[in-house]
Amino acid sequence: MRLGRVVRRGVSILAITITLIGCGSGGTSSPGAVVERFFSLSNRGQTDQALECVSSDSQWSVGSSVMWDSITGMVGVKFSGVTIDRVEISGDVARVRYRLRYSPSLYNSTGEAELQREDGRWLIVDLGG
User: Fold this and answer.
1) Which of 5, 84, 102, 107 lies at a CB distance of 3.0 to 4.6 Å from 32, suitable for a disulfide?
2) Cα 109 to the chain's mean position, in Å?
3) What are the beta bridge partners of residue 73?
């Protein structure tokens, strides 16, 4: 019984650590890495984890992007990846130009994310086009 409790605790700590590292805990992730992680998670249907990359004030508006990714997955559009084309940082604000690749490629798109550093973490505040 005691070993099971230790294993569960270790798994819980590992899961929390991975979640925190994923979207810029302690300022360790770049704005580009946060955008990549957001789209990768949302396209795998891990919307709760994807929204951890988003400022709490922006979760409603950015959530529509997560919904689109979920819908495209249901109609047979396969996410192929995200490419970061440009990152511009000015103080606590960053703009990340990205390209989303899908199969079929007819769904490929480009966009620009705006991120803000909050408590040392880069978080998405807008996914404008």
Assistant:
1) 84
2) 17
3) none
Instruction: State how far the Cα of 52 lies from the Cα of 123, in Å rounded to an integer.
Output: 8
> Domain holding 86: CATH number?
3.10.450.50
Structure tokens, 98: 């990205």
What are the per-10-residue average pLDDT scores of the chain (129 residues)? 44 37 60 94 86 86 61 69 96 96 86 94 88
Q: Rounded CA gap, 129 and 32, in Å?
A: 16
Give the whole-angstrom CA distance, residue 79 versus residue 88. 25
End-to-end CA distance of the chain: 53
Query: What's 13's DSSP letter?
Result: H
The 8-class DSSP code of residue 44 comes to: T
The total number of structural domains in the chain stands at: 1
